[in-house]
Specification:
about 200 residues; mainly alpha; 9 helices; about 0% strand; globular; disordered C terminus; YitT family protein; transmembrane
Length: about 200
């Protein structure tokens, strides 16, 4: 139960973080650049675009022989729903200092949310699973797989009108080191839940 709660909190943080970056209007992470572009072109909400793409990406697991976990399914829906809920509550912000603050909080909360759901150990997200599948089935390195996927969705999202800017660069540079900082603590919480209680 504790791991499940950690998973849900992590995914909700991820959605709130994405909404903060949207409100900063300083650029999004590659996948949300694509989701935003899709949203602008179709009129669907950003969260709905994220959910639809999550389902489609998970279907791409089939030829790669990846198996979703409980966390994979929650990842698809909880992030999209929490993103839309946060966007409905967060105001538009003006002034560079406040926009920078929203962007910074967005990157930090993304790292915390990512570390929490990874540390819960209940299945990878659909986009991470695609990267792992390409590595296992085609022999591509994780680095190459991730780079090709994210460059492709970033370029596609930019062409669709998604927001690329300072936030995109800060996310790309900062997300890895920040997850590395937060992950050991959340992994420790996850391990605690696997230890059987004393009789």
């Amino acid at each position: 139960m504790r791991r499940f709660i950690q998973l849900q909190l992590g995914l909700c943080l991820y959605g709130v973080a994405a909404a903060l970056m949207v409100r900063s209007n300083l650029g999004l992470d590659p996948w949300n650049v694509f989701h935003q572009g899709l949203s602008l072109r179709t009129g669907i909400s950003l969260g709905t675009a994220s959910i639809i793409m999550g389902v489609l990406v998970m279907l791409a697991w089939i030829p790669l022989r990846q198996k979703p976990g409980l966390g994979t399914l929650f990842n698809i829906f909880v992030i999209g729903l929490s993103m839309d809920a946060a966007l409905a509550l967060l105001p538009e912000v003006t002034g560079l200092p406040l926009r920078l603050a929203f962007m910074t909080m967005g990157v930090i909360l993304t790292a915390m949310g990512g570390a929490a759901y990874i540390g819960a150990g209940m299945g990878t997200g659909p986009r991470d699973g695609l990267m792992i599948g390409l590595n296992q089935r085609l022999g591509w390195s994780i680095r190459v797989s991730r780079m090709l996927i994210e460059v492709s969705v970033l370029a596609g999202g930019w062409l669709l009108g998604g927001s690329v800017g300072l936030g995109t660069v800060v996310f790309a540079v900062g997300i890895g080191p920040l997850i590395q900082v937060f992950l050991p603590w959340f992994q420790a919480l996850g391990r605690e839940t696997r230890v059987a209680p004393s009789p």
